[in-house]
Prior knowledge:
Elements: H1 3-6, E1 7-10, H2 14-19, E2 24-29, H3 35-46, E3 50-58, E4 62-65, E5 68-71, E6 75-82, E7 89-92, E8 98-101
Antiparallel strand pairs: 1-2, 2-6, 3-6, 4-5, 7-8
Amino acid sequence: MLPEDIIIKPIVTEKSNDEVQFGKYTFKVNKKATKVDIKRACEKLFDVKVIKVNTISVKGKEKRVGRSAGMTSDWKKAIVTIDTNPNDQKYTGKGGKVTKVSKKYKDSIEGII
Length: 113
């Protein structure tokens, strides 16, 4: 699946807005998407480093219109935790030289809220 097919839309509620300051973003995702698919899609679409993905399968509710009753569709919700403090990585290269690599990740997702 393409990243655009995996992440359907952001979920903007009072609770999800409060969690943005901790680096947690909430999305409605494809029901067939796995946690690994969601992580790769977020990293590709928003250019962030994803630390953790939590998923919830939301069951549809019964709705009534007059005397006819029906069900809303089931859907899947993902809470994505991103790295809000991307630091530079250091590693030892050839000859004992310490090489520093800067991460090219953003620390937030703009345009969601």
